[in-house]
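ok trying this again, last paste got cut off
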Amino acid sequence: MAVGIFDSGLGGLTVYREIHAAMPDLPLVYFGDNIHAPYGVRDADDIYDLTCQACSRLFEAGCDLVILACNTASAAALRRMQEGWIPEGKRVLGVFVPLIEALTERDWGDNSAPREVDVKHVALFATPSTVASRAFQRELSFRAIGVDVEAQPCGGLVDALEDGDLILSEALVQSHVDALLRRMPKPEAAILGCTHYPLMADMFQEALGAQVQVFSQGKIVAKSLKNYLERHPEMVGPGTKLQFLTTGNAKSVSSQATRFLRQDIRFASA
């Protein structure tokens, strides 16, 4: 009865944590493609190929439903996968749509025409590949009109967080926020468009100011997934074990993950 969670590295653990907290009896299989991380500097074809390989491994582990807890994979690969790659009986979902639904205050599954929303000026912080894809703007346009999005590619931040370098991470957050505010001085909301970034949510909030509502994905995705599984219980696969898989060195990744999430995480080789 497992559900798969995929990320290029450790960032998706922030989504795992919230899903596990919301549904503690749901077995989860987490796959980190750590040997190829980060994805944010790769081209779209490379990201697509790697994401398909990762999802195939999660299907083998007994997952019928996979959550791409990687914004770069969601942006660069998901639509192409859904158009012709995903095997019959399997489902792959991204993390953009639940976030946009929360931002635009639309109910789950609301497929009505795009409409005016209260928030008009949105800051997006994401990896260079996610920003270049314009996937967030595309998905937002399906649901809302009249929203101005200013996107800031946050080069270096994922690497610093994976390395546990909080001093550099804080400096990069401040630098990226300053760069965005020069182009959009008064955002009303900010999207943390990478699952690594919730670790720095307080720093983003401090740099942006208390008047800016900061959206990050963990709790939003967990709530949406719980709703989805209540409506589609058949998408819970046959797997029964909680597993953490990695393409990297399992011992090293386990140590990094334990530090990253501040709880004991044991990875096995994928």
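PB: full thing came through this time. The two ends are 19 Å apart (CA to CA).
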